[in-house]
Every structure is written in C-alpha cells, then in structure tokens.
Write a sequence for this structure.
C-alpha cells in the first residue's frame, strides 16, 4: 500500500497494492494497521455510496461541525471524479488552500480527507459511483457547506457549468461560513490563501 503526502500534509493519496490475473484483480481497499505508521488512525463508522449519472455532476463543498466532524476516505468503483479537499481550519498556515486529485475505478487511488477540511468532487465520466468511509455519523443539524466556486479559494475545477443539487447551489462563501474550531463555531477571516495543487 503506497501512501503519499500532498501539499496539504494531512491529506493523503492512498494507492492499494493490486494483484491482477486473467480472472480480474484483488486488493485490500482499507487496512488500518498498514495506514497507522503514517498517522492515519480513524474508527470509521459509516460507509456512503453515491451514483452520479451525468458527467459534470458536482457535489460539495461539504463538511460537518464538531462534535460530528468527519474524516473521509474516498474511492471510486465506477467512472472517475476530480476530488477536492480544502483546508478550512481557522489559524492554519494553509487555510483556504486546496488539493485536487483524479480518482477513478481504473487508477484505484483513494483520498484521505481529515477533520477540518471541506470536501467536494465533480464527475469526469457518466454513471460514476463513489464510496467513502466516514468516522462520524451524518448529523443534519451540523451539516455545512461552502460554495464550489468561491473566488478566494479559486479551485481549478475541470468543468465550468456543473450539475448540482439545489442545496449545494446555496452554500455561502468561505468568508461567511461557519467553520470548525476546537471550541465550536468560528467565522472565517477574509484573507484565506488561494493556492491549489492538482495531482
């Protein structure tokens, strides 16, 4: 299992070892003991599975507030996505910066998104299915979001006119969002960085 740091050091790309033959393949999509040496220690409690029928579907940017903040381990089992993590931790040296990674059924990459990061993805192929583990249960009252095209974050999405839910179209800008903090809720400053990295 290969684990790679991104520019946002708490966000990891995980590439399982894949054993292929004429029957197909086998891989360990998750192995807690192999991830533990990298400081990736989570007790995942819920698996989520989404299907996006159309190319250009965008979901995000999503996160939950404490005490139900979620770390996520994201992978694709059909199709492909451009997966994005944004640091929304007030006081972080990389606040407002993002990382984008292509995950697909063929490359079998996974993205580990820790607490304090917003998450979103857009589909690059039709009938894309995404699976992700989370370490806290969904809590509607603590569910929050940031608009996908916030000009301060300035994510270089590979699409211009995404297909989105009504809910995702109404998320606030980063400067107006309720953000995670060890003491609850914090309103973001307006001097967020806009640096990103495509991987």
């Amino acid at each position: 299992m290969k684990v790679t740091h991104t520019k946002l050091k708490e966000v990891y790309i995980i590439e399982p070892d894949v054993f292929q033959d004429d029957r197909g393949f086998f891989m360990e999509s998750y192995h807690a003991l192999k991830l533990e040496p990298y400081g990736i220690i989570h007790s995942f409690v819920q698996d989520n599975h989404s299907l996006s029928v159309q190319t250009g579907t965008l979901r995000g940017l999503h996160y939950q507030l404490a005490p139900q903040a979620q770390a996520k381990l994201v992978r694709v089992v059909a199709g492909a996505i451009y997966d994005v993590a944004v640091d929304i931790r007030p006081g972080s040296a990389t606040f407002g910066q993002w990382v984008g990674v292509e995950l697909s059924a063929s490359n079998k990459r996974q993205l580990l998104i820790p607490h304090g990061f917003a998450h979103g993805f857009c589909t690059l192929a039709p009938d894309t299915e995404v699976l992700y583990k989370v370490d806290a249960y969904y809590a509607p009252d603590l569910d929050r979001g940031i608009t996908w095209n916030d000009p301060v974050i300035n994510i270089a999405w590979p699409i211009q006119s995404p297909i989105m839910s009504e809910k995702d179209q109404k998320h606030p800008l980063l400067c107006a969002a309720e953000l995670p903090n060890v003491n609850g809720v914090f309103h973001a400053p307006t001097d967020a960085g806009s640096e990103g990295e495509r991987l």
User: Anything to note?
Assistant: The radius of gyration is 16 Å. The domain at 2-198 is CATH 2.60.120.10 (Jelly Rolls).
